[in-house]
TrEMBL record:
Keywords: Cell membrane, Cytoplasm, Membrane. SUPFAM superfamilies: POZ domain. GO terms for cellular component: cytosol; plasma membrane. Residues 1-11 have a biased composition (Polar residues). Residues 51-149 form the BTB domain. This is BTB/POZ domain-containing protein KCTD7. The lineage of its organism: Eukaryota, Metazoa, Chordata, Craniata, Vertebrata. One of its GO terms (biological process) is membrane hyperpolarization.
Length: 289
């Protein structure tokens, strides 16, 4: 029996080598790539947009000029419709933006003619303007109510670096107590005080002079923690205790937490001689349902 085997490349003779002309004759054009291969291998061409652009923003339909979307070059919309990025279209050929379109009309009205939304929509439109990075609209909204007032309020709250932490503590304590008692609501004590130094009613006329006459060792006698769950203060500003209480209730309410509060007295801790704490104590009632 004779067994015939193919020659290995190593054993091939120079005569068997393919000449350059043979290689050209045997060269074949590659097969036409599939759609998947083309998408992987070929870069997408710049997308062309019509002058009048139909839009589908989260299921809401809009129509505007291309120049309106490109009004401010540093915005997300200008970048999306610059041609450098691919924008998908829906079944009707509208360019699709996967975003809630409730306030997109307010965005377009500003891009068209500089119109600002009514006051009740300012906060929501501001959030959308942040998403689309529309700087001029953000600047305009920050200069009107309620955002202008919020900037002033935040400047006041900036005097208390642990304000947000204290809010979280109020929520956590109220939640824990309600769960432990299987109750609909929970109560906790909160101290809100503006002045750092303790006073009594008859010391008020002499307060400014007395506070500078105390030595460092005597001042330490006034440092104490009232027997409460959370304590806010002190701070130096015109805003008073009632202003801070309003901030606390407003921020808790913004998180969907129902809260009532009332003053239930003052801290009567005796410090030294005839000095008592006298910081106001408030009872907060957090209702969960």
């Amino acid at each position: 029996m004779v067994v015939v085997t193919g020659q290995s490349k190593a054993s091939a003779t120079p005569d068997d080598a393919m000449s350059s002309s043979d290689a050209e004759d045997d060269f074949q054009e590659p097969a036409t790539p599939t759609a998947t291969q083309a998408g992987q291998a070929l870069p997408l061409l710049p997308q062309q947009f019509p002058e009048v652009v139909p839009l589908n923003v989260g299921g809401m339909f809009f129509t505007t000029r291309l120049s309106t979307l490109r009004r401010y070059e540093d915005t997300m919309l200008a970048a999306m419709f610059s041609g450098r990025h691919y924008i998908p279209t829906d079944a009707e050929g509208r360019y699709f933006i996967d975003r809630d379109g409730t306030y997109f009309g307010d965005i377009l009205n500003f891009l068209r003619s500089g119109d600002l939304p009514p006051r009740e929509r300012v906060r929501s439109v501001y959030k959308e303007a942040q998403y689309y990075s529309i700087g001029p609209l953000l600047d305009n909204l920050e200069d009107i109510q309620p955002l202008k007032g919020e900037k002033v309020r935040q400047a006041f709250l900036g005097l208390m670096p642990y304000y947000k932490d204290h809010l979280e503590r109020i929520i956590e304590i109220a939640k824990l107590r309600a769960m432990q008692r299987k109750a609909r609501f929970a109560k906790l004590k909160v101290c809100v005080f503006k002045e750092e130094m303790p006073i009594t009613p008859y010391e008020c006329p002499h307060f400014n002079s007395l506070r500078f006459e105390r030595s460092e060792s005597e001042a330490k006698l006034f440092e104490h923690h009232c027997e409460v769950d959370v304590s806010f203060g002190p701070w130096e500003a015109v805003a008073d205790v009632y202003d801070l209480l309003h901030c606390i209730v407003t921020d808790l309410s913004a998180r969907g937490i129902a809260v009532d509060h009332q003053c239930i007295g003052v801290c009567d801790k005796h410090l030294i001689n005839h000095y008592y704490c006298k910081r106001p104590i408030y009872e907060f009632k957090i209702t969960w349902w």
